[in-house]
Amino acid sequence: MDLWNEISKTLYSAADYTVKEAEKLTGIAKLKYKRNALKAKLDLYYKSIGELKYAERNGQEVADEMYSGLFEQVDAVLAEQKELESRLADLRDCVSCPQCGYKVQRGLSFCPKCGEKLPSDEKKAENTGNAEDNG
Closest Cα partner for 73 from 42, 31, 50? Predict the structure, then answer.
C-alpha cells in the first residue's frame, strides 16, 4: 500500500505543478494581449497628436485643450503599461533593472547588461506582501 500512496502523492504533486504553471502561462498570455491592446491605443493617441500638430502647421487653429486631453490619455496609458510590465515581470519571476530596464531573473545581485546593483529580494517581498494585503 505504501507504494500506491507514494505514486498517488507524486501524481498529485505533478498535477498540481502542471495546473499552477498552466495558470501562470495563461496569465502571461492575457497580460501580453492587454499590452498589445494598450500599444495600439497609444499609437492612436500619438497619431491624433501628430494630426493636430500637422493641422496647426498648416494654419488651422487648434485649441490647447485638445492637446492636453490627448496628453492626459497618453499619460494614463503609459502608467497602465508600466503596471502591466511589472505584473508580467512578477509572473516571469523577474525584476527590471532600475538603471537600464533590462529584465533580470529574480535573485541576482547585479544586472548582467549594465552591472547596476539590483534591489534585494527582501525589499521586493515586503512590497509584494503589502500590495497583496491592500487589495
Answer: 42
Q: What is the pLDDT of residues 37-51, one digit of tens each?
A: 999 999 999 999 999
Nearest to 94 by CA among 114, 80, 112: 112
Size of the chain, expressed as the number of residues it contains: 135
Check: CB of residue 66 under 8 Å from CB of residue 74.
no
Q: For residue 56, give the C-alpha cell.
A: 496647426
Q: Going by DSSP bridges, is the β-strand pair 103-105/94-96 parallel, antiparallel, or unpaired?
A: antiparallel
Measured between alpha carbons, how far is 16 from 119 in angstroms, rounded to an integer?
31
Domain residue ranges in the chain? 1-91, 93-135
- For the chain, percent helix, then strand, then coil, each to nearest 5? 75, 5, 20
pLDDT per residue over 109-128, tens digit each?
Answer: 999 999 999 887 644 444 44
CB 90 within 8 A of CB 62: no
pLDDT band at 72 (very low <50, low <70, confident <90, very high): very high
